[in-house]
Write a structure and sequence with these properties.
The chain is 25% helix and 29% strand. It is built from three helices and eight strands.
């Protein structure tokens, strides 16, 4: 059976700052942080797992009122002049990465993770003396530390977001 994919992309280039969006900034993990966590994990002999958030930008809730025309091929005839109000981010919107970061950041801090002062995409938690560290790079995550905490966190993440479990880390951003 053939599988076809399609992606609904907003025309963000037509957005106007101050009207359609306010903030677009979203930090990504520093390359040096990723290298340091991988080196620490290797030295401590921790497991290193990788996950990917599927349809990542659709998880971000947008604060602004953004309207789009009905997509070509999906028009409701007799209502051609109607528009759609977006409640979630779409690929192509200027504020999509910021909305995704805000959503994942509040999720991790809500679970009790502490955010690193040196890198806003580096989260850690200690449970009964066992460590779990998460490095977030847009929609890719590295999880390292105690194996049981990793598995528990993966289950929690899969309940909140549609995730792709990539298992043990083999390749990440060229490393």
């Amino acid at each position: 059976m053939e599988k076809y994919k399609t992606r609904f992309v907003a025309r963000g280039f037509s957005q106007i700052e101050g009207i359609d969006y306010e903030d677009t900034f979203a930090p990504v993990a520093r390359y040096s942080s990723i290298q340091t966590i991988l080196a620490l994990s290797a030295q401590m002999r921790w497991h290193i797992h990788q996950m990917d958030v599927k349809t990542a930008f659709l998880n971000g809730v947008i604060e602004e009122e953004v309207y789009i025309e009905q997509p070509e091929g999906f028009e409701i005839f007799s209502s051609e002049s109607h528009v759609c109000r977006l409640k979630r981010a779409l690929y192509g919107l200027k504020q999509s990465t910021c909305a995704l970061y805000t959503q994942t950041d509040s999720y991790f801090t809500g679970l009790g993770f502490s955010k690193s002062e040196a890198d806003p995409n580096l989260y850690q938690i200690v449970v009964e003396g066992k460590f779990l560290i998460i490095v977030l790079y847009v929609d890719d995550l590295i999880l390292t530390g105690d194996k049981l905490l990793i598995l528990s966190c993966k289950d929690d993440l899969a309940k909140e977001f549609e995730m792709k479990d990539l298992g043990l880390l083999h390749y990440f951003l060229g490393l």
